Amino acid sequence: VANLGKMAKDIILLMQTEVGEVFESPEEGKGGSSTLPHKRNPVSSTLITSIAMRVPSLVSSVMTAMVQEHERAVGGWHAEWATLSEICKLTGGALKQSVDLTTGLEVDAERMRENLEMTGGLIFAENVSLALANKIGKEAAHELLENACNRVKSSGTHLKDVLLQQESHSVAPEYY
Predict the structure, then answer these.
(1) Active site annotation includes 40
(2) How far apart are CA 142 and CA 126, in angstroms?
(3) Alpha-carbon distance 15 to 23, whole Å?
(4) Which residue is catalytic, options 60, 72, 113, 155?
(5) Residue (of 27, 28, 31) closest to 41 by Cα position
(6) Partner residues linked to 106 by β-bridges
(7) Catalytic residue among 33, 60, 85, 155
(8) What is the mean pLDDT of the chain?
(9) Where are the beta strands (DSSP E) in 57-153?
(10) Mean pLDDT score, 84-102
């Protein structure tokens, strides 16, 4: 349930207008906003997230009921029954919503690309540094990337272009 909750929370964040990378399916009567007509509300994701928030306290109840006298004392195991049933129902509901959600999820790949490119390639700096470390050493790679990132910030040039212009190190294009 926690994993489903994490997925749903990520989808909620990715559906925000300013991100706009994924959207729940536009089913009739589901997710529309009367006050914000451009917005599609994350109905399934909201349900999954609310379930993921409820289940840990129910698990806590089961864990508390584990400490019992003798052989499954009166009261303790009775407390588990309703709690386990509720956990199973909630888990089933989260799974059903997740299947519906992921089956109909719309992904805007172009918007994802635009969002990645907003950094001028800086989002890839760590990966490039790690790849270069194998070739020129960790410290040299860190220094090269630090200088390149500063040039990107000051010039607005893309990181890939800055690295390709480096004359002192042979930086192969496959690292970007």
Answers:
(1) no
(2) 9
(3) 6
(4) 72
(5) 31
(6) 23
(7) 33
(8) 88
(9) 106-107
(10) 97
